[in-house]
Design goal:
binds zinc ion, two-stranded antiparallel sheet, alpha/beta, 45% helix, 216 residues
Length: 216
């Protein structure tokens, strides 16, 4: 059956890392609306809005999700990372899910100070996409990918401290209400996001694998 996994959590909670593990181990495609939107840089308006830490309009994002999930590799389901972020988007996803099947949500609770370090410490290899963190998962050599000696790690432009503050405010007002929304329909699974990556994954995997039997 087809499953739609929605990974929720504050900025920096580790949604991208878990989405990548689920993709690698369970084979579901990882759909990061942030990555897709970043790739659509020619649409200058999208870029400007994102760079300011605000949310892109619901219509634009649902369009991106609709197009991407229409592809063949999404037939058995997919993982959404960074969507939905508002109640309106969640309802748009319901419509989409009616044609597809299943709808499961993970929420991860992590203290804010940890989250900020997770974001400002984040570094990515421009070659392989591996994600490091100078506080929690440093590369063997400062600022250099373990697999790609000589390749300097990159900081995402929207990971600066003042932009993070805006993202947290946006998260509180727009995204936190989604937790209630999914809770009410018994589709919310909570995972302690402060554990190590592998432990978090071990909690998530059975939920994703047997997602059909409802909320934990
Ligand atoms: Zn690399």
């Amino acid at each position: 059956m087809s499953k739609i996994i929605v990974l929720m959590g504050a900025p920096g909670a580790g949604k991208g890392t878990q989405a990548r593990l689920i993709h690698e181990r369970l084979g579901l495609p990882q759909i990061s609306t942030g990555d897709i939107l970043r790739a659509l840089r020619e649409a200058e308006e999208i870029h400007t809005t994102q760079a300011e830490g605000r949310l892109v309009s619901d219509d634009v994002v649902i369009g991106v999700v609709r197009d991407r999930t229409a592809r063949d590799d999404c037939r058995n389901g997919y993982i959404l990372d960074g969507f939905p972020r508002t109640l309106t988007q969640a309802k748009m996803l319901e419509d989409l899910a009616l044609e597809q099947e299943g709808h499961h949500v993970h929420s991860r609770d992590v203290p804010v100070d940890v989250l900020v370090k997770r974001i400002i410490g984040r570094r990515t290899c421009p070659v392989c996409g591996e994600i490091y963190n100078i506080y929690f998962k440093p590369p063997k050599t400062d600022e250099v990918c373990d697999q790609h000696p000589g390749v300097k790690l990159k900081i995402r432009p929207d990971d600066s401290e003042e932009k993070i503050r805006v993202r947290f405010q946006t998260y509180e007002t727009e995204t936190v209400p989604l937790t209630d929304y999914y809770q009410e329909s018994n589709r919310l699974h909570r995972v302690d996001g402060e554990q190590q990556t592998e432990r978090i994954y071990r909690e998530i995997e059975p939920i994703v694998a047997n997602g059909a039997h409802g909320a934990a």
